[in-house]
């Protein structure tokens, strides 16, 4: 599949379908993480209660995709790497996060071309978040 030079919408947020679609993506992501054995290492990093993580990822993704800046309005700059330093993130956690998000995008019918663009961006960010070997 070739990726178009120009996306069909002004923002990825609009292309995805707005807040309702970002919320569905976030819910699907955490539901899958909680249920699928393939994401057990990733799930273990998150503790017992996922409600705070669900909300923060939703807020973050809205702004990151070009929509409302819910996260930065509440917490300031995301400083992702710094905020994730207390958690051991290696290749396994990175790869499980990426696979879980890819599956969530498929489940929530994110347009294929948009999903491909996001996977590339997610990989760069997820790889940069690693703070342990392996």
* Overall residue-averaged pLDDT value: 91
Percentage of residues in strands: under 5%
What is the CATH-assigned architecture? Orthogonal Bundle
Number of strands: 0
Range of helix content: 55-70%
Q: What structural class results from the helix and strand content?
A: mainly alpha
Q: Quick one: CATH superfamily?
A: Globins
Tally of discrete structural domains: 1
Number of helices: 8
- Could you tell me the radius of gyration in angstroms? 15 Å
| Measured distance between first and last alpha carbons | 31 Å
Question: Looking at the chains present, what oligomeric state does this protein adopt?
Answer: single chain
Weakly predicted, low-confidence segments: none
What global shape is seen? globular
Order of helices and strands: HHHHHHHH
**What kind of sheet is the major sheet?**
none
Would you give the CATH topology?
A: Globin-like
**CATH class (first level) name:** Mainly Alpha
Overall description:
The protein is an all-alpha fold and about 130 residues long. It is built from eight helices and no strands. Helix 2 crosses helix 7 (about 90-105). The longest helix has 18 residues, at about 110-130.
Condensed summary:
With 134 residues, this protein is mainly alpha-helical. The chain is built from 8 helices and no strands. The mean pLDDT is 91.
């Amino acid at each position: 599949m070739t990726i178009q030079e120009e996306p069909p919408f002004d923002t990825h947020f609009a292309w995805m379908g707005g807040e309702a679609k970002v919320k569905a993506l976030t819910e699907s992501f955490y539901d899958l993480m909680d249920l699928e054995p393939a994401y057990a290492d990733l799930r273990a990093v998150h503790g017992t209660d996922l409600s705070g993580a669900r909300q923060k990822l939703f807020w973050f993704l809205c702004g990151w995709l070009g929509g409302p800046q819910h996260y930065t309005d509440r917490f300031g700059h995301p400083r992702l790497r710094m905020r994730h330093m207390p958690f051991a993130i290696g290749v396994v956690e990175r790869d499980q996060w990426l696979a879980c998000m890819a599956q969530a995008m498929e489940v929530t019918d994110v347009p294929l071309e948009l999903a491909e663009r996001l996977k590339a961006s997610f990989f760069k960010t997820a790889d940069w978040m690693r703070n342990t070997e392996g």
